[in-house]
Amino acid sequence: FWFVPSVEVKIEVVIPEKERSKEEMSPNGKASPLIYKVNGTARHYHLEEHPISSNPYHNPKDVVEASVCHVKDLENGQMREVDLGCGKALLIKESGEFHAVGHKCPHYGAPLVKGVLSKGRVRCPWHGACFNIGTGDIEDFPGLDSLPRFQVKIEKEKVYIRASKQALQTQRRTKMMAKCISLSNYNLSSTNVLIIGAGAAGLVCAETLRQEGFSDRIVMCTMDRHLPYDRPKLSKSLDSHPEQIALRPKEFFCTYDIEVLTEMQVAAVDVKSKIAVFKDGFKMEYNKLLIATGNTPKTLSCKGKEMENVFNIRTPEDANRVVKLATSKNVVIVGASFLGMEVAAYLADRAHSVSLVELEHVPFKKFFGERVGRAVMKMFENNRVKFYMQTEVSELREQEGKLKEVVLKSGKVLRADVCVVGVGAVPATGFLKQSGINIDSKGFIVVNKMMQTNIPGVFAAGDAVTFPLALRNNKKVNVPHWQMAHMHGRIAALNMLAHGMEISTVPYLWTAMFGKSIRYAGHGEGFDDVVIQGDLDELKFVAFYTKSDEVVAVASMNYDPIVSKVAEVLAAGRTIRKRDVE
Q1: Are residues 91 and 160 in the same domain?
Q2: Shared domain check, 411 and 432
Q3: In 191-343, beta strands by DSSP E
Q4: What is the DSSP string of 73-93?
Q5: CA 485, CA 208: separation in Å to the nearest integer?
Q6: How many angstroms separate the CA atoms of 402 and 415, rounded?
Q7: What's the pTM?
Q8: β-sheet bridge partners, residue 373
Q9: pLDDT tens-digit map of 78-136
Q10: Do 80 and 94 have their domain in common?
Q11: How many Cβ atoms are within 10 Å of 141's Cβ, its own excluded?
Q12: Name one GO biological process term (predicted).
C-alpha cells in the first residue's frame, strides 16, 4: 500500500481466523484488526494469509503448562474444572479425545462444568449459551464472546494443558473480525448495510458480518442515546448505569468500523429506491437493510396517564429515576408481566410499599401456568409485595402536579408516589406501514427461516418479527426474548452474505426475582397440561408444558441444569413424550 511518509501510520497485523491460534489476544482480550491512519482516516486491509508460527504464544512468560490429571480419570462425556495455578480451564473428554476451553460462560460467568455436554458442544446451565468444545466458538446465545481454547497433550498417560495466562484470567475471546476497506471513499448518505435498531439483534448482525470478513460500510441507527446495552438488566437491576451494562465499549465500534448513529429515528423506508428517511429529513441509501426496532411499551389509557412519576421502563435513565423516586416511598406497578414482576422484586426492600395490579387472577398464568404462577405469587407476598388481582386502573390522581393515588376499577384507592407500567408491548413497526414490507395484523414483520422479508435485500430480526419455529412444525411465532434476538441477528447477517442459513434454535429465557431464577426453554404457547416434578412450596421444581402428548417447553427453579438438558434434546430434533416426564 502507499502512504505519504510525513503521515503517522499505525499498523496492527491480523492473521485470518483459520490461520491464527485461538488464544492470541490483544492486551484487552479483543482481537486486533489491521488499521492504519492516513490523514486521520482509518483504513483497513485484508492481509495475505501467513503460515502460523510453530509457537502460537508470542510471549513465553505468558504461557503456563500443567499436568491436570491421568488419562483414565475422565470417562467419555465427562467434564472437569482443572486448576493450572494461575487460572482454571474446563477439561472435556468426548469420543476418546480431550479438549480444554475456558471454564466460565462469558455471558454472566456461569460455571460450565455444571452445564450440559452434547455432541461436541457445552451448553451453559444458566441461560443456555452453547460453545463448540473444539474451537471454543459461541454457537448459540446469549452473549457475544467465545471461550478461549487451550492446547491439550498426552504424555506418559498424563493429560497436560498449555494455556495463555491472560486467556485463563479473562475467560473470554472475541472472534476475529474484518478487515475493512477505506472509509474515506464513502458518501455520508449511503451505506452498504443499514441496521435500524441497536439491540442484541442489530449488534450481533454487525459483528457477524465483520467476523465473516465483510469489509464494507455498516451503519446502525438507534433512537436511544446510548451504544447497545444489556436491556434485560434494566428491570432486574434498576440502578445499573449505561456504561456498566454496555455490551461493547466505545473503542470496539471504532476498531471494527461499526458506525452507530444515536438519537436517530427512521420515519419511513422506500424499498424501491433503497432509501431510509429519518425523522429530521436526513436520507440514507442502503444496499442491504436489517430492521430490528424491537417493541414499544403499551401505555395506560386512563385519566392521568401523562402525569409525572408514571413510567414505562425503556432506558437506563427511566430505571435509575424509578429507583431514586421509589426509595422509602409507595410504588404501584401495573401489570404482572416479566418487567412488572422483576421491578416489584427489585423495589420490595427499597420502597416503603409495593403494590401490584393485574387483570388475571395469578401472575404468569399464560406463560408458566396457574400452579407455578401461584408459587411465584406466594414468594412475592412473603417479601411484602401486595397484589390486587382481577382488576385494572381507572384513574391516576395527582396533588400539585405529582402522582398521589392510583384508583382501581374495584373501587380501591392505593397511595402512590411512583407508578411503573408493565402491561405489554407492541412491535415498533408503524413507520413501515406504507413500505410494502409484509406486516401481519398485529404489526409484526413476517420473515422466513432466513430472516428475509418479502422484499429482496430487506431482513428483519428480534422482538418485532414472526418467524417459522422449527420446534413447533414451522408455526409462525413471535419470541420476544434476548437469546432469540441474538440468533436472529446472526442468521440475518449470514444470509446477507448469501450463506443460505436457516434458523433452528430452541428459545431459551430466564427471569430473576429475589435472588432466584426461573429458567425456561421451548415454546409453550397453547399448552394444555403441566407436569410438575419437585416441590413448588420449596421453589425447587421442574415444570414440563405439554400439548396433546408432546413436551413443548420446560421451566425450572433451583433444578439446574434440567432446562439446558431439555433444550439440548429439543435442539437435536428429538421429541419428548408426556409419559417420559410423568
Answers
A1: yes
A2: no
A3: 193-196, 218-221, 258-261, 266-270, 275-278, 283-285, 288-291, 295-297, 310-311, 330-334
A4: GS-TTEEEEEE-SSSEEEEEE
A5: 13
A6: 12
A7: 0.89
A8: none
A9: 999 999 999 999 999 999 999 999 999 999 999 999 999 999 999 999 999 999 999 99
A10: yes
A11: 25
A12: execution phase of apoptosis
